[in-house]
Amino acid sequence: MYEKLKYWLVLSRVPGVGTRTFLHLLEQHSPEQLYSESTAALSALGLKSAIIQAIKNPDWTTIDYDIEWLAQENNGVITFNDVNYPSQLKEISDPPPLLFTRGNPELLALPQIAIVGSRNPSSVGIETAFSFAKELSQYGFVITSGLALGIDGASHRGSLAVQGYTIAVAGTGLDRVYPARHKELAIEIIKTGLMVSEFPPGTTAKSNHFPRRNRIISGLCQGLLVVEAAIQSGSLITAKMALDQNREVFAIPGSIHNPLARGCNALIREGAKLVETTQDILEELNVVYQQDNEIQPPDMQSKLDLEQQTLLNRVMFSPTSIDFLVENSDLSIESISSMLLILELQGYLEAIAGGCYMRIK
């Protein structure tokens, strides 16, 4: 069963053979043929001596470990030449030669929306990612993300909350979970969704793995949504990869005073589509949906009494001080402080540095 596959595993573990070299070699020989070639023939292909020696003398103990892992329930691997290799991913400039999987690999053939963002988002960012993932799942999209803390985790959970399908692209081997805090989430994803990685079993987390993982996230999807991202962030790198791959890029706008909104605002200036509702994404992707089922933003202010609503209307979508609220209302500072706490707990406001508040809904 694994006789030919084991040579793919050998080549994937050869130091110095990256994605481009692997794919270049595939144009001329199968991995099995490369193993059978003479040293002179391999040298004629331009391969260095160390690479040739690694191909001719593989570490079979490691390959046996890979095969033992593949033999376990729900585990698998898809090679670049496999008919089940995702067609979307083949379009990118450096598709991974191998995709290791845990869960249901058939999901790779379904339409996907990627959702990415900060590992340290605001509570609003978490709620936004969760809600968009949930609603997009209800319209039939697979939600794809990177299993990271923050926005990634919220996106996976939003899909799972409505029995949707979600794919987690890992930056490690799939015999481990990174970050460890998402072990339980990974277990839930594998039950009905999919975990995927280009890295073989046993591969630990390294900083250079995550940009490589990100190109797979964007490569698998039809469109990518950035929820919260600072100017210098991995999410912006992923978004730029998506643009290079001719994917649709969407971004949630935010206050100019919020560092986590600056990355999204920058993307919008550069051509990403500003989105406020799920319909903005559906329309851009020409998804047909029933007008009667249109998802409307909730009428949140109807739940507030008159004083609370009046106070909320005076809090801006930028830092607003309590002194400003006292000066512009007939309420005491004690009453304002009490109502601000209630409004914060209900998710309308967020307390920020300097004793200020900022409206978020």
Number of distinct beta strands: 12
Estimate the helix proportion, in percent.
40-55%
Report the CATH architecture of the largest domain.
Answer: 3-Layer(aba) Sandwich
CATH topology of the largest domain: Rossmann fold
Principal-axis shape: elongated
Describe the sheet with the most strands.
9 strands, mixed
Count of helix runs: 17
Beta content comes to 5-15%
Describe this structure in words.
There is one protein chain. The protein has about 350 residues and is α/β, with parallel strands linked by helices. The chain folds into three domains: about 1-70, no CATH class; about 105-285, Rossmann fold (3-Layer(aba) Sandwich), CATH 3.40.50.450; about 305-360, Arc Repressor Mutant, subunit A, CATH 1.10.10.10. Helices cover about 45% and strands about 15% of the residues. The strands form two sheets. Strands 1-2-6-5-4-3-7-8-9 form a nine-stranded mixed β-sheet, sandwiched between helices. Strand 8, helix 13 (about 260-270) and strand 9 (about 275) form a beta-alpha-beta unit. Helix 8 (about 125-140) runs parallel beside helix 9 and helix 11 packs across helix 12 (about 235-245). It starts with a helix and ends with a strand.
